[in-house]
Automatic annotation (TrEMBL):
InterPro entries: CinA-like_C, CinA_C. This is Nicotinamide-nucleotide amidase. Residues 8-151 form the CinA C-terminal domain. It holds the Pfam family CinA. Transmembrane segments: none annotated. It comes from the Bacteria. Gene3D superfamilies: CinA-like.
Length: 163
């Protein structure tokens, strides 16, 4: 699993905060972040919205989007990240949604994962095709989410955000 320290260090340096909205990772992303000493300066909190109806009621994902595309979708991932950012009043929102297995879900294959990061002026969503068992898919999704956050925090456009 990716080291959460670079993300936390960059957030501390920038004086910015992060929140998460997790579906398939079920709190693993938040748990990974809170392993870092000093993370309380930057981690606002998170939403574990495993059930589809909670994606709408807690994270604010449009119910029509969920009804037409299902929970495993790139636009849903972005909406989850935006919802975490808004609900927790954070500068950055990070989300995970996908199929960890062992069986496909709503016609989506095991290992199909979407990770989104939304910041003050930018957003990124990645489609992943991950292998391995349920635990490996979830761990890989967390690693990718942390790496994506670091990438955006280091990008030139991220440096123009308000603190």
């Amino acid at each position: 699993m990716a080291d959460p320290n670079p993300a936390v260090r960059l957030l501390i340096e920038r004086g910015e905060t992060v929140a998460v909205a997790e579906s398939l990772t079920g709190g693993l992303l938040a748990a990974t972040l809170v392993e870092v000493p000093g993370v309380s300066a930057v981690f606002r909190g998170g939403l574990v919205v495993y059930a589809t109806d909670l994606k709408a009621s807690l994270a604010g994902v449009d119910e029509r989007l969920l009804a037409t595309r299902g929970a495993v979708d790139p636009d849903v991932a972005v909406a989850l990240a935006e919802g975490a950012r808004r609900a927790c009043r954070a500068d950055w929102g990070v989300s995970t949604t996908g199929v960890a297995g062992p069986d496909p879900q709503d016609g989506k294959p095991v290992g199909l994962v979407y990770v989104a990061v939304v910041g003050p002026q930018q957003r990124r969503v990645d489609e992943l095709r991950l292998g391995g068992d349920r635990s490996a898919v979830r761990a890989s999704a967390v690693s990718h989410a942390l790496d994506s956050l670091v990438t955006l925090l280091r990008s030139p456009t991220a440096n123009t955000s308000a603190s």
